[in-house]
Amino acid sequence: MRAALVTVALVIAVAVTGAGPSRSEASAPGATPTHGAPPAGTSGAPGTPGERAAEQVGQPVLAGPLDWGDPMIVASGSTYYLYSTQPLPWVNVPVEVGGSGGTWGPVHDALPVLPAWAQSGQTWSPDVHEFGGQWVLYFAARLRGVTPAVHCIGDAVADTPTGPFLAAATPLICQRSLGGSIDPRVSVTSSGSTYLVWKSDNNADRAEYGTPVIWSQQLTDGGLGLVGSPTRIFTPDRAWQDALVEAPDLVTAGGRTWLFYSAGAGFWSADYAIGVARCEGPLGPCVDTGDTPLVASTAESAGPGEESVFSSGGHYWLVFNSSFSAHGSTARPVAIDALTFGKGIPVVSP
Residue 169's domain is classified under what CATH number? Predict the structure, then answer.
């Protein structure tokens, strides 16, 4: 029986244009906010009253008009913070605050000033973690003045999870020889050690850089530095992955370590899906649990991916996008589903 949690409703307020496979193509503000809600009284997703039409994994709880890519949620007490890839040209790292009232507040920019090395307009896949009372934001941004485009991972600090965060003057990780570095996520082991996992962006030009790799490296105590050298922990080796892996999130639960990741033709495709691999530890190696995805397309959720995992009160949730809404919007909707860990592979359920 899943325990109840505080109520939260997702709110969005911007339209989307464009059809190409960029990470975010939102441009036109001013649309009326829309709300979505999972069933009341379940821990499968922080919810507000209201029943979903069908109990199906991946059914959107937030659908259009905002294109909210790479969603991640931080739970701090009874308050939730929702971050995403840049959906608006004038907001670098959007964050909304939600609590027991059941709604999200207005969009704020957690990183209003980019570092000098970063070009505005393409700030991707933020991740926020608290280290000893200080909050650290990790993000991917395009290097200024570099052609072809290359993204690197930066870090920034603030006293609160909403910021404003102050970015370091130089990137934390920048694998230019591998096409760049994106999709940072913090992983915490059972002993409390922290690691950063990310993807080298080889598929920006596979002919030159080869196959993408998921990397892991231990963080220093304050989260602003790295210990040792990066370790390759995972590469695509299943047919459904289409030689692409990205959006890694390394989770230790129930005495085991799991790597959640996205793979397939690309986030804009119905063939995109979420996989999971079993890892020997935070530095891998990680091995697929089977030949099929953990979460694949359904009638309500085409091309699920760009996932992250968050926990609160001993419960876990999988937060992810679909490539488009089944209800007619071209914006990527957001789903939040329960994630449980038992003796076998993790289970995702509405």
Answer: 2.115.10.20
